[in-house]
Amino acid sequence: MSAKYYTQFILTDEQYRGGNEFCGVVELNYPMEQSSDTRDIEAILARNFDLQQNAVKLVSWSRLH
User: Fold this and answer.
1) The domain 3-63: what is its CATH number?
2) Per-domain residue ranges for the chain?
3) 2-32 burial: b if 16+ Cβ within 10 Å, else e
4) Is the pTM of this model over 0.70?
């Protein structure tokens, strides 16, 4: 069962220095626990922006119902 999350994140790559804070919805193939590691969400966001995973810093996230 997939789960959607509203995310706020910062891109630390040089090309985003002027405007680097974003928000959006990410869909995972499985629901995450509130205490889960956020690397899966960061990996999806990085892939969408064609960046390395370490160029994305997740600020907050919450599950959409």
Assistant:
1) 3.10.20
2) 3-63
3) eeebebebebeeeeeeeeeeeeeebebeeee
4) yes
